[in-house]
Specification:
Helix content of chain A: 40-55%
Distance between the termini of chain B: 28 Å
Number of helices of chain A: 11
Structural class of chain B: alpha+beta
Shape of chain A: globular
Oligomer: heterodimer
Largest interface: A-B, 40 and 30 residues
Radius of gyration of chain A: 22 Å
Strand order of the largest sheet of chain A: 1-3-2-6-5-4-7-8
Strand content of chain A: 5-15%
Number of helices of chain B: 8
Order of helices and strands of chain A: HHHHHHHEEEEHHEHEEEH
Strand content of chain B: 5-15%
Largest sheet of chain B: 4 strands, antiparallel
Structural class of chain A: alpha/beta
């Protein structure tokens, strides 16, 4: 039995890319990706980086057949976004450029490539991409980014929408008060349901109006329209964007909506999602708003 | 054909949805916006509720019975396999799917017919971005209003993560 376990263990660590074609390497990588799609952010990022290095990074885009290029690009862009890894994004760009040379790119991929740079907060690369392709493809403009006085990029950081449509990098202090951090997407149906339900509940609204921060994760476009609309609609729950995701190490899940209860600067409870029926009772319990007696 | 029981059940369901949406809209939104949202929401909920395929079992039954008539046959073998593998269901129906092959291989109408099996046709925003090949394609694009979350996956109930460019997270998540 012990021998069998050793054999199973040995098999499980055999590199998957041995004797594989690009097509099977890509399919194998996507299967691995699927297997950890719902895992917490940082361990997932680490696994993806390792798998990518072993399975897809060795692929030279010039040597990959036309029929496999689209899935390779999708695999690469997904990996770069989920792992928050600019070196993977460089490989994505090499694949993208090769596809452009071969006229294999769908219109949507131009948007996806620029959004990848935005998601990685590589604004310089996003601007260069926009300068090259923005005339011939429908790409969002990249807003001007400024820094608040005294901004420290090593501390928790956010991007705040200015009236001009520009964004400003600011630090965020989690220690100044107890609060709820709502990871939120202004276009997400579940986020909207959550905000609507919280606003309609007097106890939750009273708490959230004073002690909540609404933070849009990577993946949300920089187009100011949706956030402006959100802030007009939910003026007590104004939304900002995450700046450098690495400065938020205690945020495990960036799906929307996710609620993190911070007490004395530490996450003490996480409430994920807003399915039908909501999670108002869980939020109240976590925030100590539930009445315990008559 | 829908049975009488099904019709009664659907009417009851619609009434419940309408009541819920009316209360929700009345509680927190301006009346006009609330009505618009309620209308769009109702269409979306109904579409998913009345879908033929709401589970893996339904899908197997469809593949068995529809045979060559299945709209899924419009996809190439590899694309069909990838699409079917990507489907995730919960008790309400489809919660996420890959759409890249639908977008690259099919016409708007063909993709619409496939997604129609799952109730996801009207809320698939990528259909609007496709190049219409004829008047039917353009017609379909003109009446789509509600969007599921393109680029998202359903990572837990009621939670989408928007870093997956080839997936769609549906409102059933």
């Amino acid at each position: 039995m012990f021998a069998n376990l050793l054999v199973a263990l040995a098999l499980s660590i055999v590199p998957v890319h041995d004797d594989t074609t690009p097509a099977t390497a890509i399919a194998g990588f996507m299967t691995q990706l699927d297997s950890i799609a719902a895992a917490p952010y940082q361990p997932r990022a680490n696994r993806i980086r390792d798998w990518y290095r072993d399975m897809l990074a060795p692929l030279n885009p010039r040597a990959v057949a036309d029929k496999d290029m689209e899935t390779l690009l999708l695999a690469s862009m997904t990996a770069a976004g989920l792992a928050n890894d600019r070196s993977i994004a460089e490989h994505s760009r090499a694949i993208f450029d090769e596809m452009e040379t071969r006229s294999l790119l769908a219109e949507k991929r131009y948007v996806d490539m620029q959004q990848l740079y935005v998601n990685l907060r590589d604004f310089e690369a996003a601007r260069a991409f926009h300068a090259k392709f923005g005339q011939s493809h429908p790409l969002d403009p990249i807003p001007a980014i400024s820094r608040a006085a005294g901004f420290d990029p090593a501390q928790r950081s956010i991007l705040v929408l200015q009236e001009t449509g520009a964004l400003q990098e600011r630090n965020f202090s989690a220690a100044r008060e107890d609060f709820v951090l709502a990871v939120a997407d202004p276009l997400c149906h579940f986020t909207l349901d959550a905000a609507t339900a919280i606003e309609a509940d007097p106890e939750l609204h009273a708490y959230f109006a004073e002690h909540s921060h609404w933070l849009a994760p990577y993946g949300v476009r920089l187009d100011p329209g949706p956030i402006e609309t959100w802030n007009a609609r939910f003026s007590d729950y104004r939304m900002v964007l995450v700046d450098d995701i690495r400065t938020w190490p205690d945020i495990d899940y960036w799906g929307t909506p996710t609620f993190y209860v911070f007490v004395q600067g530490q996450v003490v409870e996480t409430i994920r999602g807003w399915p039908k029926g909501g999670r108002a009772d869980e939020l109240k319990r976590a925030l100590g708003l539930t009445r315990t007696g008559p | 054909m829908m049975s009488t029981n099904c019709i009664h059940a659907a009417k009851g369901f619609v009434a419940a949805v309408l009541l819920g949406l009316t209360l929700q809209a009345g509680a927190a939104e301006p009346a006009h916006a609330g009505v618009q949202r309620a209308d769009a929401e109702l269409r979306r909920v109904l579409s998913y509720e009345l879908a033929d395929v709401k589970s893996r079992d339904d899908l197997a039954a469809h593949l068995r019975t529809a045979g060559a008539a299945s709209p899924l046959n419009a996809l190439s073998t590899g694309a069909r396999e990838r699409f079917l593998d990507s489907l995730v269901f919960n008790d309400k129906g489809l919660v996420e799917y890959r759409f890249d092959d639908l977008q690259s291989e099919l016409s708007v109408a063909e993709a619409y017919r496939i997604l129609g099996l799952f109730g996801a046709a009207e809320s698939a925003s990528f259909l609007r971005e496709m190049h219409p090949r004829n008047a039917v394609d353009a017609g379909i694009q003109s009446f789509m209003h509600v969007e599921d979350h393109e680029g998202g996956r359903c990572i837990s109930p009621g939670t989408c993560e928007m870093l997956h460019p080839h997936y769609i997270c549906t409102s059933n998540c």
